[in-house]
Design goal:
Layout lengths: L1 H20 L3 H11 L4 H25 L5 H22 L8 H21 L13 H14 L3 H11 L4 H29 L12 H14 L3 H7 L2 H23 L4
């Protein structure tokens, strides 16, 4: 029960941040699981299993509050599913930490750029044509599967950095994430059944943690759309940029063995 309550709190915190700023549920949850000694593939599978439920609730909240840019959703989600399936298959067979330095560098650079845009109070502009977000979706899905939570930091931040309205960028990315998460989770299940994933037995040992992440995430997810809708655009932009730098710093310290 102690494990369940701990991860329930982690799930509430992670989803509250993710729902408001479009990122961090996967990164926070995966980082805590890794800190408890959970293998990378098992941590990623656990988080994506929980996200099947939390992203559904979060997506519904953003749709209800009209935070979704519908013309961007399909190309983003379809490409994200493809990238996520490829990433999940690769992670099930190798150590995904190989590409972690590149993810950290991208988060830091994008965070600095978004903060620079916020200081200039740069106006939002439509992202056209819609299909141009497809490569972003593919990369985001791949990073999400391999890194255990890279969709929001990659996709939400890039949409905001490209000039998208923050609340619609966050809402669209969160809604597309639901489809990506289902695809990644299905790939992990397939890898488990076919024996491609050698660490599958470890997943059963962390059922309480996964249950806590699900319940905590579901408690916070319904408020996601409302928070994103009411917070001023410039504050959201500062929040996204600042959170990216925090995530990059935290993951960089993990990478260098400081924490």
């Amino acid at each position: 029960m102690d494990t369940f309550l701990l991860f329930l709190l982690v799930g509430v915190l992670a989803q509250a941040v993710d729902g408001a700023l479009g990122m961090a549920y996967g990164v926070i949850s995966s980082s805590v699981l890794l800190a408890f000694g959970v293998p990378p593939a098992t941590a990623s599978a656990s988080v994506h299993g929980a996200e099947v439920f939390t992203t559904a609730a979060s997506a519904g909240s953003h749709i209800w509050h009209k935070n979704v840019e519908w013309r961007l959703l399909a190309p983003l989600a379809i490409a994200g599913v493809i990238g996520g399936v490829v990433g999940a298959y690769i992670l099930a067979g190798i150590d995904g930490r190989v590409i972690k330095p590149f993810i950290v560098a991208y988060l830091a650079l994008m965070g600095l750029y978004i903060l620079w845009r916020a200081t200039r109070n740069a106006p939002s502009r439509p992202i056209r044509p819609a299909w141009i977000v497809a490569p972003l979706g593919a990369v985001g899905g791949f990073f999400d599967a391999v890194g255990g939570g890279g969709w929001g930091p990659t996709v939400s931040s890039t949409l905001v950095g490209a000039g998208g309205e923050p609340r619609r960028a966050i809402g669209t990315a969160n809604t597309a994430e639901f489809f990506v998460t289902i695809a990644i989770s299905a790939t992990f299940v397939w890898a488990l059944v076919t024996g491609h994933w050698r660490e599958a037995d470890a997943l059963a040992n962390h059922a309480s943690a996964v249950a806590g992440l699900v319940v905590g995430g579901l408690l916070a997810a319904p408020f996601a759309g409302h928070i994103t809708k009411v917070v001023p655009q410039r504050v959201l932009t500062y929040g996204v940029g600042g959170l990216l730098l925090i995530l990059a710093t935290f993951q960089g310290l993990q990478l260098w063995g400081v924490i």
